[in-house]
Automatic annotation (TrEMBL):
Residue ranges of domain GST N-terminal in the record: 2-84
Protein name stated in the entry: Glutathione S-transferase
Coiled-coil portions: none
Organism of derivation: Roseivivax sediminis
Lineage: Bacteria, Pseudomonadati, Pseudomonadota, Alphaproteobacteria, Rhodobacterales
PROSITE patterns hit by this protein: GST_NTER
A matching Pfam family: GST_N_2
Length: 203
């Protein structure tokens, strides 16, 4: 297998999800930084050639250019048999969690963070209040989905944990509080050496 290259940015929770999965799977890779705040046309030509929309993350692997964090996570899990990808039950759990994250808590948290970014575009009146209400509902679902286990995949973190960690680790940036269960889970995730490395993968 050829070398793996992950393109991303430190402000992208989606890129962080993939960086964490690569670390937890023990896959050697290098990271390249793309300035997501710069105009698209100013981004590296080598990156744009493989990601026409100019979005991160982008994972180069075996001549493939893989995009969309959820799709990349599932590719890693199935190809390398890691993070729940080694069993049908683990993959079913991963797919369900990834779909939930993308449509629920992974939708509202990035928007709440963006609403507080200095220099960002103003949000329509009432939008932030709606997003806060959405987060409250999503946080309650988080607790139910996590259950009594330490991680979403049981005794060890899996693909779903990587996906959900990407933005929940920044609840303070969104000026909202985690539930008690979320705070405990985040503490367990942050205690992983791989999570510490992934958090600074792009500087």
């Amino acid at each position: 297998m050829g070398g793996l290259t992950l393109w991303g940015h430190r402000d992208s929770g989606h890129a962080a999800k993939v960086a964490l999965a690569l670390k937890l799977c023990g896959l050697e890779h290098r990271c390249e930084v793309v300035d997501i705040w710069a105009p698209r046309d100013s981004r590296p030509a080598a990156f744009l050639a493989k990601s026409p929309p100019g979005q991160v993350p982008l994972l180069e692997m075996d001549g493939l250019a893989l995009s969309q964090s959820g799709a990349i996570l599932l590719e890693l899990g199935t190809r390398f048999g890691c993070l729940g990808g080694d069993s049908p039950d683990g993959l079913r759990r991963a797919r369900a969690l990834l779909m939930w994250e993308a449509n629920r808590i992974g939708m509202c948290l990035p928007q709440l963070i963006e609403a507080r970014r200095p220099g960002g575009d103003p949000f329509p009146e009432g939008a932030v209040d709606w997003l806060r209400g959405r987060y409250a509902a999503d946080a309650a679902q988080f607790d139910v989905l996590l259950g009594e286990g330490p991680f979403f995949h049981g005794a060890a973190p899996g693909l779903g944990d990587c996906a959900i960690w990407g933005y929940t680790r920044w609840v303070a940036k969104a000026d909202i509080a985690p539930t008690a269960a979320m705070a405990d889970w985040l503490a367990r995730m942050d205690a992983l050496p791989e999570a510490e490395d992934a958090a600074v993968a792009f500087g």
